[in-house]
Amino acid sequence: MPWVEAVSDGQEMRRTIRDLVALSTLPATWQTYEPHQIADSVSTALVSMLDCDFAHISLPPLMDEPATAVTHTGPRAAPGLADALPAALAEWLPRRSRDTAAIAHPLGSGMLYIAAAPIGYHGEAVIVAGSHQTDFPTEAQRLLLGIAANDAAIALQRWHAETGQRRFAQLVENSSEFIAIATLQGVPQYINTAGLQLVGLDSVDEARRLHALEFLSPQFRAQARDVVWPRVMRDGRWVGELALRNFKTGATIPFLVDWFRVDDPRTGLPINMATVSRDLTAQKRADSALHHLNETLEQRVTERTAQLAEANRKLIAEMAGRERADARLQALRLELHHASRLSTAGQMGATLAHELNQPLTAAANSIAAARRLLQKNGTKAPPSLIEFLDDASGQTLRAGQIIRQLRDFVRLRETEKRDEDASTLIEEAVALALAGAGAVGVQVNLCFDPAVSQVLADRLQIQQVLTNLMRNALEAMIGHEHRELTVTTTLLNENRVEISVADSGDGLSGEARQRLFEPFFSTKHDGMGLGLSICRSIVEAHGGKLQSRDNADGGTMFLFTLAAGSKAEVAPHAR
Amino acid sequence: MPARRNVHIVDDDAAVRRSLERLLHAAGFATVSYQSSLALLEAAPALTGGCLLLDVRMPEMDGIELQTRLNALGVRIPIIIITAQGDVSTAVRAMKGGAADFIEKPYDDEALTSAIEAALAKPAPRDRRAEAAEAARRIATLSAREREVLDALMAGRPNKVIAYDLGISVRTVEVHRARMMARLGTRQLAEAIRLAVMATLA
After folding, report:
1. Chain A 483-542, CB below 8 Å of chain B: which residues?
2. Partner residue facing A361 (CB), from B27, B59, B105
3. Residue A216 gets which letter from DSSP?
4. Candidates B16, B22, B161; nearest CB to A369
5. Is the Cβ of A462 closer than 8 Å to some Cβ of chain B?
6. Whether B106 and A373 lie within 8 Å, measured CB to CB
7. A73 within 8 A of A50, measured Cβ to Cβ
């Protein structure tokens, strides 16, 4: 090696060795240096050691460090060299074929002798030193330059590696996930800060005294040991939910566990178990809240649905109720119509029977009288006369029997009295009377004595009376502008209730008033003349009396009384 | 005592009045006729002896009301009410109002004259205790069921309704009714009713 012989000078040798030692101590000071500082340090040292005019280091962008260039000049360098150098070097460096050259001095005074040494293998990072001295670089200078380049390369590489590591470390440390590495035997080697906090440990050392499985909540340990661990060893990864436990609080923490095997990149053999697991507490809480919200919502939907269903049911019930009410009114109308027809027939029968009975009675009486006279002193009369009179008498009785049978056949229904609610009874009757009676525009007043509750009545019969009276009242008001129908109840005493029906019509004429209740008398052109007669019969069958009087405001008022119902009775003995 | 054989007839029907007068004269009674209840009421204070024959059905004031008025006026005279046949409730009211008897139209002349004879022979209506006690004694011989049937008949209920109410057959009602009549010694329902009403006065 020719340069070894050149360093034959002992002093030169000592100086070189001293510089080499100095250079070798430099990297120790670079521990915390970043690339620019390293470059700065190297170039400063070189200028002094090489006793050259300048030392320049340029570094390409490394990782996310920008490109950097450092130039230091020695005391014998021409002033302004540092500024002029970059352009000159930029021209030479990319084109250089050798590591040494002589280029025109950038400041224009002779030549500048330069030597370059690549830093690392990339070639883009380079140290360049230069001097105006023609012997530059000597072998010793080239040696020092090469070593400096190597030192710088190592330092930069280490920085590069450390930066990456630091980043990963920071990434892992700052992660909120539980990140841990363990040996294949399950001894924890590393747990990140978040991981330690989640399981309630203070340091990694503490973790190292435990087995990885101990981090799990007891109920998951067997599964982890017998199922998950072998699967990770076999497949390399297992992802699932497990619960960890907090060593301080004992709390069980749900985790989404990503559990994987770490293999040696060179040998491909497994070297570690590792996990990146996520605490699901918040998510579970959120899920639960969401679930609760959903449930609440569902609950509310259910409740609302129920409410709507209830409302719907009520509506239907109401409709049904209305239909029932309509049906009841319809049934009442039919019932009343039927009863009214029956009682008309009954009244006719009773009236006819009475009217016919009178002459028959008279005839029977006269025959009986004649017979008695003949028996007393009638020896002159032919004996057959008695026989004839007996026959006539028998026939009148027979006629009476026939009439009675006819009347019995159509007789007024037996009165079946029971306690009835006066208001309901009257209101139904009003509804019946107004229905289809051309009652539009009629003002209906119902004045019920609050003291009246029950009346003892045959509902159907009394409703028949009421509808009859109200229909009469309505008819009496036809053609009148002001039409007012007033139905009142009054408690006369504890046993009697008076009911009145008043209209605002023209009132009764003298003849009508006199013959009011007479059967077959009617002021209506198509009237049978039995209505009021029937009403009177019914009222009388109830132990009351039907009366009429002039209304104070014009029109007619009909009144009748009924027995108060037993429930309304104050003293049961009073009756 | 001719006054005691006086029959006061109240009827609005002239033909009936006239025929009654003929019949009663033939039967040996004296008669005074009134064409309305009001006419009788006017003459009421002067009434002495005899009996009153009242048709229940008259305009203005019916026989029952006239009876009530006479009671109120203190006129003591036996009253026979003439009702339509089967008008049980009116008959009951008449008896409760103090009528001596009631007779159903159309009637046989014998029934009428014997009712009048009985009424004339009777003490004044207010002194009927003995008769009432006798009626009560006879009513008391009835079984509970017979009594129920009688009460129902007095309320004017037909046999079939009574059967329904008591939960027995119509035939059974008829049997009870016949036994009841036999026990009371009556042949007509009217008599049985009269007894039952009299019994309540005891």
Report:
1. 518, 541
2. B105
3. B
4. B22
5. no
6. no
7. no
B163 touches chain A (CB under 8 A): no
Identify the closest residue of chain A to B112 by CA–CA distance.
A365
B46 versus A192: which is more confidently predicted?
A192
Cα–Cα distance for residue pair A159/A153, rounded to 1 Å? 10
Query: Which of the residue ranges A87-96, B53-62, B110-119 has the most confident prediction, judged by mean pLDDT?
Result: B110-119
Per the listing, tokens 């009003």 go with A430
Cα–Cα distances (Å) from A503 to A388, A487, A532, A545, in that order, read 58, 9, 16, 19
Helix (H) or strand (E) holding A35: helix A35-50
Q: Is A252 on the interface with B (CB under 8 A)?
A: no
Reported as a pLDDT band with limits 50, 70 and 90, residue A499 is very high
pLDDT of A87 strictly over 70: yes
Chain A closest-CA separation from residue B191 CA (Å): 20
**A392: closest CA among A420, A412, A369?**
A369
**Interface contact flag, A364 B26, Cβ < 8 Å:** no
Q: What is the pLDDT of residues A153-168, one digit of tens each?
A: 888 888 888 888 888 8
Which of B105, B157, B165 best tests the A interface by mutation, with the highest count of A CBs <10 A?
Answer: B105
The residues, ordered by sequence, that sit 6+ positions from A560 with a Cβ below 8 Å of its Cβ are: A465, A498, A499, A535, A539, A544, A545, A546, A547
**Tens-place pLDDT, residues A20-65:** 888 888 888 887 788 888 888 888 888 888 888 899 998 888 777 7
Is B196:B150 a contact under the CB 8 Å cutoff?
yes
- Rounded to two decimals, the pTM is 0.42
Task: Evaluate if residue A1 carries a pLDDT over 60.
Answer: no
Helix (H, G, I), strand (E, B) or coil at A451: coil
User: What per-residue confidence (pLDDT) applies to A570?
Assistant: 42
Calculate the alpha carbon distances from A391 to A342, A369, A388, A395, A397 in Å: 35, 14, 5, 6, 10
Suggest the residue from B25, B64, B109, B112 to mutate for an interface test with chain A (most A CBs closer than 10 A): B109
B20 in contact with A at a CB cutoff of 8 Å? Answer: yes
SS3 B15: helix
Q: What is the mean pLDDT of residues A555-573?
A: 72
With vertex at residue A442, the alpha carbon angle to CA A535 and CA A322, rounded to the nearest 5 degrees, is 80
Q: Are strands B30-34 and B6-10 parallel, antiparallel or unpaired?
A: parallel
Q: How far apart are CA A210 and CA A187, in angstroms?
A: 7
Q: In a 10 Å sphere around its CB, with 0-12 CB exposed, 13-18 middle and 19+ buried, how is residue A300 labelled?
A: exposed
Starting at the edge strand found earlier in the chain, the sheet holding B101-105 runs B30-34, B6-10, B51-55, B79-84, B101-105
Q: Which of A354, A397, A414 sits opposite B156 (nearest CB)?
A: A414
User: Mind listing the pLDDT tens digit for each residue in A449-467?
Assistant: 998 889 989 888 898 899 8
Are residues B23 and A368, on separate chains, in Cβ contact within 8 Å?
yes
Q: How far is A400 from chain B (nearest CA, A)?
A: 6
CB proximity B108 to A under 8 Å: yes
Report the C-alpha gap between A515 and A527 in whole angstroms. Answer: 14
The answer on pLDDT for B62 being more than 70 is yes
pLDDT of amino acid A440? 72
Chain centre distance of CA A539: 64
**pLDDT score recorded for residue B22:** 92
Q: Residue holding tokens 């280091």?
A: A57
- Min Cα distance A345 → chain B (Å) is 17
Q: Under an 8 A CB cutoff, do A361 and B161 touch?
A: no
Tokens matching residue A558: 């009909």
Q: What is the distance in angstroms between the Cα of A443 and the nearest Cα belonging to chain B?
A: 34
- The burial class, CB within 10 Å (0-12 / 13-18 / 19+), for A539 is buried
A329 touches chain B (CB under 8 A): no
> What ipTM was predicted for this assembly?
0.74
The arithmetic mean of pLDDT across residues A165-183, rounded, is: 86
